[in-house]
Structure formats: C-alpha cells, structure tokens
Amino acid sequence: MNYLNAFWVGGLICAIGQILIDKTKLTPARILVSFVCIGAFLSLVGVYKPFVEYAGAGASVPILGFGHSLFQGIVKSIEEDGFIGILKGGLAAVSAGLTAVILFGFLAGLIFKPKTK
Fold it and tell me: HSE on the CB side for 40, CA within 13 Å?
C-alpha cells in the first residue's frame, strides 16, 4: 500500500504542475519556485510532515518536498545554533541532493553535448 500511496500522491503533484504549465502563462521556473515556497509553507503550518509520513517518497521527492526539507533544516539549525541557523540550516539539510543534481547535470552535459536554442 505504501507504493500505491507514493505513486498517486507523487503523480498528483506532478499532474498539478503540468496543468499549471499547460493552462497558465506561468513559466516553469515560477511554478517550481512556487512549489518550493508552498512546500515550506505547508511545513510551517504542520501539514506537510504528516503528508510525507502518509505518502513517503511520493511527497518527499517532488519539488514540494524540497521546500519541506529546506524548512525542516532551518528549524533544526535554529534550535542548535540560534540565529545563524537561518543562513546555514537549509543548505546543510539539502546539500546531498544539490550535490547529486550538480554532478549528474555536469555528466549529462559531457555525454549529450547540449545546444542552445
């Protein structure tokens, strides 16, 4: 049942993003930033953590989960380090994911020879 919940929740999040791309004049970058902010806001009001516990990777892997992870990292770092945690907590929480994105993006650029439009 965990796989099914992850599949339909992750699919619903992605479908909402695709509908926004197709039906509005918002750019994909604005939609992504909006999703990150929504994920952080839902984490702030305490809604997103139970959502992640229910859906697992279906809620933590999409871009909403990135906002949630940033916010949780900031909260944890503020508790440990005080005010300076605002600046370092989010990046510390998502550093492994950001490193993977940079590394695999670089490798894809080497393999596939990107071109500008």
Answer: 13
Which residues lie below 8 Å from residue 66, measured CB to CB, with a gap of 6+? Answer: 36, 39, 94, 97
Largest alpha-carbon pair distance within the chain? 47
* pTM for this predicted structure: 0.79
Which 3-state string (H, E, C) describes 20-61? HHHHCCCCHHHHHHHHHHHHHHHHHCCCHHHHHHHHCHHHHC
**Residue indicated by tokens 């902010």:** 37
Q: What is the pLDDT of residues 25-74, one digit of tens each?
A: 999 899 999 999 999 999 999 998 888 899 888 888 888 888 998 999 99
